[in-house]
Amino acid sequence: MTLPSKRKADLRRRLTAGADEHRKCAIIGCPCPTTASRGSGLNRLYCRRHEEHHERHGSYLKSSYSAAQLAPYRAAALRTLREYQKDTRVHRARLGIETLYAAAGMPVDAFRLRGLSPEERARAAWARLRQDKVDPLVPLSEWLALSAVIRDDSQPDHRNEFRLVQAGKLIHRLAGGSHRRWERERPGGAVEVIELHRYPASRGRVLRHLGERLDRAAETLEPLLSDLRAAEAPPRQSARKSSQPL
Ligand SMILES: [Zn+2]
Questions:
Q1: How remote is the C-alpha of 15 from its chain's centroid?
Q2: Cα 172 to Cα 124: distance, rounded to the nearest angstrom
Q3: What are the start and end residues of every segment in region (Disordered) (predicted)?
Q4: Is 168:207 a contact under the CB 8 Å cutoff?
Q5: Domains of the chain by residue range
Q6: Are 78 and 52 in contact (CB under 8 A)?
Q7: How far is the CA of 246 from the centre of ligand 1 (A)?
Q8: N or C: which end of the chain has fewer CB within 10 A?
Q9: Residue 180: beta bridge partners?
Q10: How many angstroms does the Cα of residue 56 sit away from the middle of ligand 1?
Q11: At CA 131, angle to CA 192 and CA 164, rounded to 5?
């Protein structure tokens, strides 16, 4: 049997075997059938709802950290990085982000992301940060803050997948969206203001791409983590573009 036809046969077997099994989702207490047993997908372990949760948060059960959970660590992380700016480890991490900025190509308007691959959408996010002149220490401070939140979480998800997706979400959020605003005259003479806001969907492989790149750039910062504690009084509005959902 040639490889492509073997692959096709495997796929057919997986689809039809799944349809006969009536398997329940692997999450304890979830009564839903797996997507394979419903014939609506290939996942033989999880239902649609848990599969989508994983796409969005990088974990089948744990949800993304909120801006409020991250804020006190964020402020402390940025302060630490600015304090250690001349340190070789911080300098190297900064160069890593500058390289990502430089290699990102032209920024792509969030209205025009449809049809691009996850990798191209990830590059577009780095390009938007460069265009907005976001200090490279800011994405690095997001990485440090996230690492500290996971360390101090009493019920953490320590899998790499969760960490990378969470890191990707922070970059995604930092890169923001695109906004359009124009005026239109109504028949009676009144002027109507029309606004359109588009935020790229924060889910799927684009987050893993962003998270992996950030992780690689920030790996030299690991030793700074041991001294990083949450700031005592979290600022009320420290998150940039905080109205955007995570
Ligand atoms: Zn489920």
A1: 30
A2: 10
A3: 227-246
A4: yes
A5: 14-57, 67-227
A6: no
A7: 22
A8: N
A9: 196
A10: 15
A11: 105
